[in-house]
Structure formats: structure tokens, C-alpha cells
Amino acid sequence: MFSSSKDIPVTSLAKIAQLDICDAVTIATPIPEEDRTDLLLTLALAMLYLSEESCPRLIWSSDNIFFGNDDRSNMSRPYLSSLLLPPQSSPSPSSELPYSLSFAQLLWEIETGSRVPEAAGLKDQSGTPSTLSQTMSTLKGKRELRQELKQIIGACIAMTNLDQDHDTRCDFIYHKIVLPLEQMARPPQVSRPVDGRQQAATQYLKPDTIVLYDECEISLPDANGPADTFTKNLKEFTSVHILGNGQNNGIPIIPDRIKVAIIDSGITDRGVWRQNAETDGRFAEGRSWAGPDPDNFLDTYGHGTHVAYQIIFGAPKATIYVAKIADGKEISKDGASAIAKAINYAVDVWKVDIISLSFGLRRENECIARAISNATQKNPVTGKSTLVFAAAGNDGIHEYRAWPARRQDVIGIHAADGRGNLISNFSPPPMDDRDNFAALGIGTKSTWKGCNVRKSGTSFAVPMAVAIAANMLEFTKQHMPEDEKLLYSAAKMKSLLRSLSMRKGEYNFLMPWKICNIPPCDQQGCPERHCTHCVRRLRLALESAILGR
User: Fold this and answer.
1) Pick from 428, 444, 477: which residue ends a domain?
2) Which of 89, 245, 255, 304 is deepest in the core (most CB within 10 A)?
3) What GO biological process terms does the UniProt entry carry, in alphabetical order (predicted)?
4) Is there a catalytic annotation at residue 303?
5) Residue 85 maps to which CATH number?
6) Annotated catalytic residue: which of 241, 303, 414, 530?
7) What is the residue range of 76's domain?
8) How confident is the model over 483-535, as pLDDT tens digits?
9) How far apart (Å, rounded) are the C-alpha atoms in residues 323 and 287?
């Protein structure tokens, strides 16, 4: 909105955000994260509108953005104070530099709650766009800068080198600034109903809750057969190359198991598979952050049990650790801190290799983001980082990938049937600037309260991808122990997973036996030669991913 000088509302954004108060300890959060995201998107849309040649330019500043007394609680309705000069009086395209830099400064100040120091070099425009972007991303304010906003601010600064053609500028603003902010401020991730009866039962989210899981327990007869074939092929692959590694290739089996943390709704204490997992040491420990008793990690909802079931059977040499963070499908906003605590515990105490997050959030959560960053940073002692897998979400073709699956240092997983076909009810559209991995997540087998069930959703594609990753870590430990630690990074693991997948449209469908061309050697009656053939190909894939050969 615009207003004349005599009609400017009384409260500036700088005052609301308390930018001139330097004591970060006494300030909680003047503008909550969701409101900040909405405001940033509104301002980005205004920037796009004002990039039209017929519109006046303005220097973006928190001192020139106001809110009416009745609108202070609504961050999506700012007033922009500007001199409305005729088009011919507005700055020429050559003055784009202060225009884009001032917007970068505004984004940083809104997000961090602090003024940009003069040492950053924005005011005198010292330094190249790349150095300015690096400086802005490392500046410290009262709040930490979200990773997505670092990229958006970098895009604003990069506009200084942009062709001044009007269409080029508009296209850049839309794709590099507006769209990323729309992804950050998208609607809640709610499971899309697949028939009329489910649709009638779908409820709107309560404003103080976060929906975690994207599961559906439905009958898809056409998907069951391909799902069973997929799991059969995975079992054959693991029996030869994971369980049989030490014996078939003359390499002693290393006792250290790959450790996987399942951060979910807990795990059941029933079932033969559950008892066997505990007996043979494949279920190591559990802990709860969902209630007062940390030792009560019993699953009363079922979701965590289904995830554990998939990993137990899909990764026969992995050991699981269970972190209970919820009793059901929803948690309160305050309960998100339990997820962060569980992630930190899995990294610092359990020292796991992989973290499975079979859920997606509507927006980034600051405390969870810090925990994930801690997990994915390389440990200076071991030289490894923790691999984090997360559900892409299943809100269908009209939605975006869930958070944290859209983070660069997280491996997001979409759901597909056993043939690699994606169904819009279960997976969001692919992202242009991220890998788009898919795993079996439709018609997967599980058990609950003594009954066999079929589950579908990206929630159940994640454990399948985690199992495949755990198997490859185990394979690397056996065949390339000197390079094993190099695979413990999201970038290296993504590179390997690409080579273990089949291209299906814009997605990479994970099927590790594809690289071995299973089953050619069964026809020749030569399982040993078959194994040698696969080992050679798998080693080549690992060398390519790890060493870049």
C-alpha cells in the first residue's frame, strides 16, 4: 500500500522490530517467524510490482515501512512511504544497485532484528556482489539468518550484475526472490484425501498445531504387486551384497553397525520382528521427548512402528535408535522443540550415522534448523557428518516440498509405487534446484497390533531410502574402508543415490539392484560371478560419488 506524507501510519517497521534496541537478551521475538515470512513475501511482491517500468522506484528501508495502529498484528498489510514521482522522474535502470541492495538490507534486518552494520559495505557499495553476499550471510544479528534467506539475499545482491532489461529483471525477481519466499510461506502440509469419504472427514488445522505425518492406510490393489516385487528385489540385493559381504568376498565382517535414529512416534513392544531386533542387537535404545517419562517410548499411534519395520527389514545390518517426539499425528508449536532435542541427542549421545525424519513441516522451525545444521556439519574428530533424510510431503501437485526436506543439506524423499510411478496424492512436484529422489512409499507392507497393513505416503518412502543408504554405508565399510568417511555428507550420498536410481520423468527412483542388472546371473547358475560383477559396478559408483572419478 502507499500513502501520502500526511497520512502515514504512526508505527514504523523499525520500531516494531526493535531494530535500534541492541540488547538481544531482553528481546524475545518482536515479530514471530511466520509473520516475518508473510511480511517478506508481501514486500517481495511489492518489489516485483514496482519493477514495472511505469512505476516509481524507492529505496527500501525499515524506517519507510509503516503499520496502522489497528494493523500491527497483521504483518501482511504494510504501508510503503515513498515520493510518488512521475515515471520520467524516477531513477533510471542504471540506479538498480541501491534499489536491490537496499532490499537485501531490509530482508536481513527484518529476519535478524538488527541493523546492518556499516562494516558490511552495503552503504558505500564496496566489494563485489559475491563478497557482499558472503559478508551478509555471515553477519551476526539478534536472530540467526535462515538458510533460505541467505540465498534470497544473495539473489538481491546479484541483481547488481543483472542485465537491466525489464523482462529479465522481472523474471529474476519472480524466480529467485518471490517463489522461494512463497515456498517458505506455503499452506500447511495436510494429507490429501483420495476419495470422497476421506475428503468429507478432512479437517482444517488448528492454528496452534503442526501436522507431522503424511500417511494414508488405503487399498491400492494395483500398487501391491509392484511393491512386493520391489521389496523382493531389495531383499535379494541385500542378502548377496550386505549379509553375504564378509563371506563371499573374503573380507571379515566389521562389528560396528550402521546406526540409524528414527525420530517419530516411538516403537511397539510387540511382534516377533520387534523381539528379534532387540535380541540380536538391531534395536539398541529408545528415549521419549513426548512426555514426562523419557523411558516411555512405546508407540501408541503406529507411525514410528511402521518406519522402524521398514528399516529393520530393508537394512539387515543396521542398528536402530528410537526417539519418540509425538503421541499422534499432530504436535503443538511448542512441541517442535522436542524434535530439536531428539536430533541433538541422536547426534551427540547416540552418535548415529543416519537420522530418519518421516515428517514434514509447513515452515522452517528455528530450533529444529539449528539442530539439523549441527547434525550435518562435519565432525572435526571423525571427519563425518550425519546424513538426514526427510519426507517431501504428500499434499499433491498443488503444493511445495515440505521442510526440512527442501534444505540443501537434507535428502528429501518422494513416494512412488514399486515401478517408480509417482501419484500426485502422495508427492509434491519436483524442485528445480534440488535433487528429486523417490522411493517405494505406496502399498508398503507393515504390521500393527497383530494385523498386516498396507501404508502409503512419503512418510514410508523415507525409511526405504534410509535402508538403501545404510546398506551402501555398510558396503563401503567392507569394500572401501579407507574412503568410508567421505560418504558421510549429503552431497556425496546424493551423488551415489543418483547412480543407484532409475530416471522417472523429473524424479530419480531408488533401486540399487539396477546397477547390477539383476538377475542375469541366476539364468547362468553363477551367483558368485553375479556377486563379483555387482561388486565391481558398485565400487565404480562409490568411487565416482566419493572421489569424483
Assistant:
1) 477
2) 304
3) proteolysis
4) yes
5) 1.10.510.10
6) 303
7) 2-184
8) 888 899 999 999 999 989 999 989 999 998 887 664 444 444 444 444 566 77
9) 5
